[in-house]
Design brief:
single chain, 3 domains, seven-stranded mixed beta sheet, disordered C terminus, RNA-dependent RNA polymerase
C-alpha cells in the first residue's frame, strides 16, 4: 500500500485472482477495509523461504493495562536464527543474529533467540497473528545486526529543542563534511571503508573497493570516479537530509525482556561490530528515539543497564525493552513503536544527551471504518482513495517548516505531529487525514530548497548546515591520466589485444545504452552507486527502485563479455590464458600504443553489430558529434574505461604475481 504497487494476475482456466486470494488465508474476520487490504498485502512481503515449521508453541502476550509489552515478538532457537542469516547470505561474522523478522502464514513479527529452544522450535504470541492461514512455511525478511546511529533533520530539530547544544551537533556535522571531502586520502590511508563515514555507500557498491586498495590500485581512474560518486552522495545526504553518523550510537532492532529483569524504562544493549572480538555492553544514560520522531516526546532519556541473566543470554545487537508493569511501555512512547520489526536509535555520546524530557504523545489509533463484508470492489476503491488522499509527506514537510519558523513546542507543530500519527495509520485505519489551512507554513526555510520567492534564510541549525556545503554536491569525473605500469608493460599476445579491442568497442556501445536509459555516468552503473544531484534529486528519491534494474542490466553485460573472453581463450590455448586476456583488456583501454595496433580483421568472426544488447553501432569517428539528438538528462558519450575491470580479480592476481585466484571481497 505504502509503495502504491499491486500484483497483477493473468488468469488461465481455474487459475484466477480469486483463487490466489483464497489460498493466501482467511481474511473474513477483518471488517476494516484498509486493514483487510493490508493483511492481504502481508502475503507479498519480500521474504526468503526457510523451512516448514511443525513445532509451534503458543504463549500469551505480556500486558499491563491497555498496553502490550510484547507486541509482535516471539521466540526461536539459536540454530534457526543462524540458518535464517545464512539463507539471507550474511557474512560469516554476522551469522548469529539475536532476532529475526519473519512471516509465517498469517503471522508477522520478530522472533528473538531463547536458550530453551532447539532446532525449528518457535513460540508465537497472539499479537503476532493477523489472520488465519494453513501455511506453515517460514519466511525470513531480515535479521538483527549492528548498524551505526544516524541523525536526520527531524531528530536534530527535536534534540536541539530539548537541550543538545548547537555546537555539539555542528562539530559532528563539520567533521563528517571534512571526512567526505578527503575521501580519497582517507580511504587510501585506512584501506578499509568500514572505518569511514558513509559506509552504506561502500557496502552497497558492486565494485570491490577494498580489493583494489589492497593491491595498490588507489590511483586508478575507475576507482577514483567511484569514490567521487560516494563523496557526492555523502555530501548530498549531509546537505539535504542532515544525515549525520553518530559513532557513539547504534541503530538496532527492538525486542522484549523475556526474563523480566529490567526495571520500567530500562534497556539492555550489548553491541558487537562485525570485526570486533567481543561484545560491549552499553551502560549509563542514553538518548533513544525511533524514526520518524516529530513530537517533542518522541526523543527520550533512559538508562542502559547490565544484568547477568541478559548478559549470559547471547543477546547482541538488539535493544531489549523492559516488560515490567508501568504506566506505559517505552517503545509505545517512541513515535508509537512496537516490537514487530521496529528499529531504534540509541546514543550514549555525552554531548548528545537531551537535557529535558517532554510528555509523550498519545498514540492511540483513531477508530477505523468498518463494514459488514469487505469486497474486492471496496478494496479497489480504498486503494484509489489512499493514493489520492495520502498526506503523510505533506504533514512531515509542513512540520519541518513550522518547527524552524516557530518551535517544535508550538501549538501548530503539536497539531501537525498528531496529524502525522493519524496519517501513518491511514493505510490500516482507512480514516482520511485533512490538513487545515491554518497549519500551512507562512514561508519555507532555505534548507528545504524551495523557490527563492517563497523561501527565507534560516538562522537555525539546519539552515547553517545547509549553507555550509556550497556549491551543491555535483559529480565530476576524474581526468583519465593514470596508467598502471605493472599491467601496461606486461607482454600480451597480439591475438588477445585484437579480440579485446573489438570486444571493448561492442561493450562500450552496450554500456552507453544503459547509461542513456537511466541517465547515469559510467561509474554509477559499474559501482551500482547512484549519485543524487540537486537537479535530479526529486526523481531519484521517488525512483530508488531503478537500482535493481541497473544492477541486473550490468551483471548481464558483465556475464556476457566474460563468457566471450573465456570462450576465446579456450579456442586459443596456445596463445595465453584468461590473465593474458584481462591484461589485454587493460592495455587496449589505457595504453594508446596498444589501441593503435592494426586490427583490420574481425577475429573469429566477431562483429560489433552482433551484440545481444543493442541493435546497431555508430563508430567513434562519426562527424555528427554535437549530441543534438540527446534527450534532456541523457549522458553525453565519453571514452569509457570500465571494460578491463570486468576482470578485476584477474588483474589483482596479475599484480600480486600469483597463479591462485584472488578470493572475492565479501559484500557487507
Amino acid at each position: 500500500m505504502k509503495e502504491r504497487s499491486c500484483w497483477m494476475v493473468a488468469e488461465v482456466g481455474e487459475f484466477t485472482a480469486d483463487r490466489v486470494r483464497r489460498n493466501m488465508g482467511d481474511f473474513s474476520q477483518e471488517k476494516v477495509i484498509a486493514k483487510h487490504a493490508a493483511r492481504m498485502g502481508q502475503c507479498f512481503s519480500s521474504t526468503r523461504a526457510v523451512s516448514k515449521i511443525e513445532c509451534i508453541e503458543h504463549i500469551p502476550d505480556i500486558r499491563h493495562g491497555q498496553h502490550v509489552y510484547t507486541d509482535g515478538v516471539g521466540h526461536c532457537s539459536e540454530e534457526l536464527a543462524h540458518r535464517c542469516a545464512r539463507i539471507l547470505g550474511k557474512a560469516d561474522n554476522e551469522l548469529n543474529p539475536s532476532a529475526i523478522q519473519i512471516r509465517l502464514g498469517g503471522v508477522k513479527g520478530v522472533l528473538s533467540i531463547h536458550p530453551t529452544l532447539k532446532g525449528d522450535q518457535i513460540r508465537l504470541r497472539p499479537s503476532m497473528k493477523k489472520f488465519n492461514s494453513a501455511h506453515t512455511q517460514l519466511g525470513v525478511m531480515k535479521v538483527s545486526h549492528y548498524a551505526p546511529a544516524h541523525l536526520n533533520r527531524q531528530a536534530i530539530v527535536l534534540m536541539a529543542a530539548l537541550g543538545v547544544t548547537d555546537r555539539a551537533l555542528l562539530t559532528l556535522f563539520d567533521h563528517q563534511v571534512s571526512m567526505a571531502r578527503q575521501i580519497e586520502t582517507n580511504i587510501s590511508n585506512t584501506l578499509d571503508y568500514r572505518k569511514l563515514v558513509g559506509k552504506r555507500f561502500y557496502a552497497n557498491s558492486q565494485f570491490p573497493i577494498n580489493t583494489l586498495l589492497k593491491h595498490e590500485f588507489h590511483r586508478e581512474v575507475m576507482l577514483r570516479n567511484i569514490l567521487r560518486c560516494i563523496e557526492c552522495n555523502i555530501l548530498h545526504d549531509l546537505k539535504y537530509r542532515a544525515r549525520i553518523q553518530v559513532d557513539e550510537g547504534v541503530y538496532l532492532m527492538g525486542i522484549a525482556d523475556e526474563f523480566g529483569v529490567l526495571k520500567p524504562g530500562e534497556i539492555y544493549c550489548a553491541i558487537q561490530k562485525p570485526d570486533d572480538a567481543g561484545k560491549k555492553i552499553i551502560t549509563g544514560q542514553v538518548t533513544i528515539f525511533r524514526t520518524p520522531a516529530i513530537h517533542p516526546g518522541d526523543v527520550r532519556i533512559t538508562q542502559a543497564v547490565n544484568h547477568p541473566l541478559l548478559e549470559s543470554s547471547k543477546l547482541v545487537n538488539v535493544v531489549v525493552f523492559s516488560t515490567q508493569p508501568s504506566d506505559r511501555n517505552l517503545p509505545n512512547m517512541l513515535s508509537g513503536g512496537d516490537l514487530d520489526g521496529d528499529w531504534y536509535t540509541v546514543i550514549w555520546d555525552k554531548n548528545l544527551q537531551i537535557q529535558r524530557v517532554h510528555e509523550p504523545m498519545d498514540y492511540t489509533p483513531v477508530t477505523p471504518k468498518t463494514v459488514d463484508h469487505v469486497s474486492i470492489a471496496d478494496i479497489t476503491e480504498f486503494v484509489i482513495d489512499f493514493m489520492k488522499s495520502d498526506v503523510l509527506g505533506i504533514v512531515a514537510t509542513h512540520h519541518l517548516a513550522q518547527a524552524d519558523f516557530r518551535s517544535p513546542f508550538d501549538t501548530k507543530c503539536i497539531q501537525l505531529a498528531e496529524l502525522n500519527s493519524h496519517a501513518v495509520d491511514f493505510p490500516k485505519s482507512g480514516v482520511e487525514v485533512q490538513v487545515p489551512e491554518h497549519l500551512e507554513p507562512e514561508g519555507w526555510p532555505d534548507f528545504m530548497d524551495r523557490h527563492p520567492d517563497i523561501s527565507y534564510k534560516s538562522n537555525k541549525l539546519l539552515g547553517i548546515m545547509f549553507r555550509a556545503i556550497e556549491p551543491a554536491p555535483q559529480y565530476q569525473p576524474v581526468e583519465n591520466d593514470h596508467v598502471d605500469v605493472r599491467l601496461a608493460t606486461r607482454p600480451v599476445p597480439i591475438t588477445h589485444l585484437q579480440h579485446a579491442r573489438q570486444m571493448k568497442i561492442a561493450y562500450d556501445v552496450d554500456l552507453q545504452e544503459i547509461m542513456r536509459r537511466y541517465s547515469l555516468s559510467e561509474a554509477e552503473v559499474v559501482a551500482g552507486v547512484v549519485v543524487t544531484e540537486k537537479s535530479k534529486r526529486k526523481r531519484r528519491d521517488k525512483d530508488s527502485a531503478i537500482k535493481g534494474p541497473i544492477k541486473e542490466a550490468f551483471e548481464e553485460l558483465k556475464k556476457h563479455y566474460r563468457h566471450e573472453a573465456e570462450e576465446f581463450v579456450k579456442r586459443k590455448p596456445a596463445f595465453g590464458n584468461i590473465l593474458d586476456y584481462a591484461c589485454a583488456a587493460y592495455q587496449c583501454t589505457y595504453v594508446p600504443d596498444a589501441l593503435s595496433k592494426p586490427s583490420n580483421a574481425e577475429p573469429d568472426g566477431l562483429r560489433v553489430d552482433d551484440s545481444p544488447f543493442v541493435d546497431g553501432y555508430e563508430s567513434d569517428d562519426s562527424e555528427d558529434d554535437d549530441h543534438d539528438d540527446l534527450e534532456p538528462g541523457e549522458v553525453i558519450p565519453t571514452e569509457l574505461i570500465s571494460f578491463p575491470w570486468l576482470w578485476v580479480q584477474e588483474l589483482c592476481q596479475i599484480v600480486q604475481g600469483g597463479e591462485t585466484r584472488v578470493k572475492e571481497e565479501p559484500v557487507a
